[in-house]
Write a structure and sequence with these properties.
By secondary structure, this protein is mainly α. It is about 70% helix and about 0% strand.
């Protein structure tokens, strides 16, 4: 199992690689997005969840859900889980517009599932 710091570094690289349009003053946004993604991956690993479970959390984009996950991480124990919990809780209490920006960046790594979309396009009327 990867450490929180390893997951965070990986997440930061993914976010920076996904969005070349980030301004240099977006450092805080990138760092918090990486914190969120790393904490979600640590939570998923600890609870035997999949990337689809992470995707669902990211799609819902709920501060309340993040608070609940932070509590679950904290209860799991261990230094990594406690650090991830602390950071996730801090993000969960962010202003709603800032929280939305964080979720938007993380959604680029976990785009919405295509399960709800039809496998093919309906024929357009002529």
């Amino acid at each position: 199992m990867a450490t929180f710091d390893e997951l965070r570094q990986q997440a930061e690289q993914e976010i920076k690689g996904q969005d070349g349009s980030l301004a240099s003053d977006d450092t805080d946004l990138v760092e918090q997005s990486a914190d969120m993604l790393a904490a979600l991956r640590l939570w998923a690993d600890a609870h035997h969840r999949t990337d689809d479970d992470i995707r669902e959390v990211v799609e819902v984009a709920s501060g309340t859900m993040l608070k609940n996950m932070a509590t679950e991480l904290k209860e799991g124990g261990g230094d990594d889980a406690l650090e991830a919990s602390r950071r996730l809780e801090g993000i969960a209490y962010s202003a709603s517009d800032h929280l939305s920006e964080i979720f938007e960046l993380v959604q680029k790594i976990f785009p919405p599932s295509s399960a709800d979309r039809p496998l093919w396009q309906e024929d357009q009327p002529l």
